Amino acid sequence: MNNTFDLNIYSDRRARLAKLLGQDGVAIIPTAPEQQRNRDSNFLYRHDSYFYYLTGFTEPNAYLLIFSDGRSVLFCQPKDMEREIWDGYRLGPEEAVKTLGLSNAHSVNVLSTELPPLLENKSSLWYPFSTHKGLTAQIDQWLSVVQSKARAGIRAPSQLRDVCLLLDEMRLIKDTHEVELMRAAGRISAAGHIKAMQFCSSSIKSNQRIYEYQLEAELLYEFRRSGSEFTAYSSIVASGANACVLHYRADKAPINNGELVLIDAGCEYASYAGDITRTFPANGVFTKAQRAVYDVVLESQYAAVSCTHNGALFTDPHQAALKVLAKGLLDLRILDSNKCGNPDDVLTNKTYFPFYMHRTSHWLGMDVHDCGSYTEPANETQNASSSRVLREGMVLTIEPGLYIRPSPDVPEVFHGIGIRIEDDALVTGAGCELLSRDVPVDPLQIEKLMA
Ligand code: GLY
Ligand code: MN
Ligand code: MN
């Protein structure tokens, strides 16, 4: 644990969850399993976000139990001199109790014998239903141990509930600690983009041959240099028409003078994600056609940002962006108004769809596509079908784009242009705070930055 670790952040969250478990409830939240890459090499380990949210603990092989009376118990890797020589320091159960502020902790080696008794005479058992492969089978096993004691008068939990329903609602509203970390993730991610943009234009201007993966290297350098542990997702660095492939990766394509480059990349800092997209001219100066499409996407992003505030619907930014994009597609004659009608017709008939096929926003937090329902939770008076109302502390991306694949119906100057502009918005009372705007979106500022 680092020396800024504040156990109160996590024990407060556990206390909040405990209150939601009902009478005699217990929750089991495991961390993520290690993932084999090949033979005896694993992928770099990343803890489970739910588990981390409640513990701040990053070691693998750990299970957290929270009881409705407020107690919490951890099963974690035991101290082991030999394993620690090979794999590094382990906190161990004894130290975990003090450091993490738990009621009790055990070695994970005794999980199968020590965990089932903790479920005895509990009425409900909460666990993640769909995020931890193999957990349901483990739960079945632990429950059958408890059920086998029925004749001794011991009851097993009779209600099985998805703990993610509770945790998703908690994680949807970021607390002050999380907001600080997300600001840092936004700042570092933005610095990475600036570094890649400047490297790109200076290389092109000095006639150096450069490739997408080299811009990825600039991003990674900046992220790691600033203390980020991982990228929040695989970086997209797409030169030219590759930008029209939504899930493109930084690959081996050369970056050519005169083309656009789309970078969608964000760092993960202290477990929180940044998620930024910028599209810029490789040589630092937009062509007329590139600029025309860019201006439409930018205007659509401004429109979306302006209706992102406390009390708005999650779908409002998307609708606002669509409206601008529909008009822009007609103005640029990418859509023919004789065939497609006016902007309202374009929206009604979804004729924009071949050029804009994704949503404008997703939740952002510890996971890049963060947890949280996009509809209001069901209650006695309404079904869970109406769009989520934005509240202070929610964080969402705002990422409109246009992707123009070659087609005989579209003016040739626009063929292969793919543009997305993505920022991370923290909902505030009056509007939203953009956490990622240290890297500009204004085309003149981009040209200045790359000059
Ligand atoms: N980079 C993933 C996304 O923008 O959703
Ligand atoms: Mn995104
Ligand atoms: Mn993105």
Explain what the structure shows.
With 451 residues, this protein is α+β, with helices and mostly antiparallel strands. The chain folds into two domains: 7-171, Creatine Amidinohydrolase, Chain A, domain 1, CATH 3.40.350.10; 173-450, Creatinase/methionine aminopeptidase superfamily (Creatine Amidinohydrolase), CATH 3.90.230. It is 35% helix and 17% strand. A six-stranded mixed β-sheet has the order 6-5-4-1-7-8. A three-stranded antiparallel β-sheet has the order 9-12-13. Helix 8 (176-205) packs across helix 9 and helix 10 (288-306) runs antiparallel to helix 11. The protein is globular and about 80 Å long. The mean pLDDT is 96. The structure holds glycine and manganese (II) ion (2 copies). One manganese (II) ion binds next to loops.
The assigned structural class equals: alpha+beta
Largest beta-sheet details: 6 strands, mixed
Number of DSSP E strands: 19
Beta percentage is 15-25%
Question: Low-confidence spans: pLDDT under 50, at least 5 residues?
Answer: none
Strand order of the largest sheet: 6-5-4-1-7-8
Annotated CATH architecture of the largest domain: Alpha-Beta Complex
Radius of gyration: 25 Å
Tally of distinct domains? 2
Total number of helical segments?
14
Distance between the termini: 43 Å
| Overall pLDDT | 96
Ligand inventory reads: glycine, manganese (II) ion
**What is the helix content?**
25-40%
Anisotropy-based shape: globular
**Name of the CATH superfamily of the largest domain:** Creatinase/methionine aminopeptidase superfamily
What is the level 1 CATH name of the largest domain?
Alpha Beta
